[in-house]
Amino acid sequence: MKRFVRRLIASAMLSMTMVATVTGLSYGQDRQDKVVRIGFQKYGKLVLLKSKGTLEEKLKAAGYKVVWTEFPSGPPLLEALNIGAIDFGNTGEAPPIFAQAAGAPIQYVAYEPPAPKGEAILVPKDSPLKSVADLKGKKVALNKGSNVHYPLVKALEKAGVKYSEIEPVFLAPADARAAFERGSVDAWVIWDPFQAAAEAATGARTLADGTGIVSNYQFYFSSKKFLESDPKIVDLVLAQLSEVDDWAKSDIRAVAEQLAPAIGLPVPVVEVALKRQSYGIKPVTDSVIADQQKVADTFFALNLIPKQIKISDAARRPGT
Q1: ∠ at Cα 276 (270, 278), nearest 5°?
Q2: Residues 289, 310: Cα–Cα separation, whole Å
Q3: Residue 117 contacts by C-beta under 8 Å, 6 or more apart in sequence?
Q4: What CA–CA distances, in Å, run from 117 to 25, 91, 137, 154, 178?
């Protein structure tokens, strides 16, 4: 079990070159220079905020500058936050569970409402598998420790299949897509926009998405140290994210056109993904904490994390 967690953290990190680049400045230097370091993924509201350039203007007025670093998924982003390489970022539900269990000083500072259709269990269009129950004894690809770990567990549970009765194949999205297309795995659990891309390019069928199974929240995080020292800067970033969010939900086509070149996907595919996304960035609530606690408890029961954790210990409450 401990070996699994160590492997998870190790696999979650980027190449040593990228980590060295991100951590090139010591935390003390960054604070002296009044820098907020933001980790982002290729898809999501932080990408839009970066492309808009409005945060830079607001931070400059507050005496700060921003350094952006891209990550391929949530686990390495939170590992960077753990080691003090970034101050702020966002991921889905599962990565912070593993991070908190490993002792990372993360603080949940905001969330996006549920988007259950934004992640799914896919099978090839000509697959004989017709239901989640058919996954028993099959190879299922997923990104280890990522946001799709929980919906897979819950979908199997709902279908009467134990997690131990499938063969998880841990692959990053690009490798999983290749394995999926050549038939090396029977199913693939993935999130948007990779989900929408696979559907469009391969005709992949959905065995189940998160509807009626999981919430699929997106969370925003700060390091505990940065939140305690610069809470107003965290609030400033969140306020700018909310402005971008308001724009995004009002003009999905324009957002798709802006994101498509960076993601490398056709505009219509990005539009599909954006329509399955949720909008509205909100302070963390007790009910959201309770939902996230269920994820943590499930992972502990499956021996996927080494100890029980309390999500409330890592959650910023409104007004603090």
Answers
A1: 110
A2: 9
A3: 209, 210, 211, 276
A4: 40, 16, 25, 15, 23
Token pair, residue 214, equals 């999981």
Phi, psi of 308 (to 5 degrees): -75, 145
Q: What is the pLDDT of residues 119-175, one digit of tens each?
A: 999 999 999 999 999 999 999 999 988 889 999 999 999 999 999 999 999 999 999
pLDDT per residue as tens digits for the range 23-32: 443 334 444 4
Domains along the chain?
2-115+217-263+279-314 (3.40.190.10), 117-209 (3.40.190.10)
- Token readout for 50 is 């970066």
Give dist(CA 225, CA 86) in Å, integer.
11
The answer to whether 278 touches 284, Cβ cutoff 8 Å, is no
If residue 205 lies in a helix (H) or strand (E), which one and from where to where? strand 205-209
pLDDT of res. 73: 86
For residue 27, the SS3 value is: helix
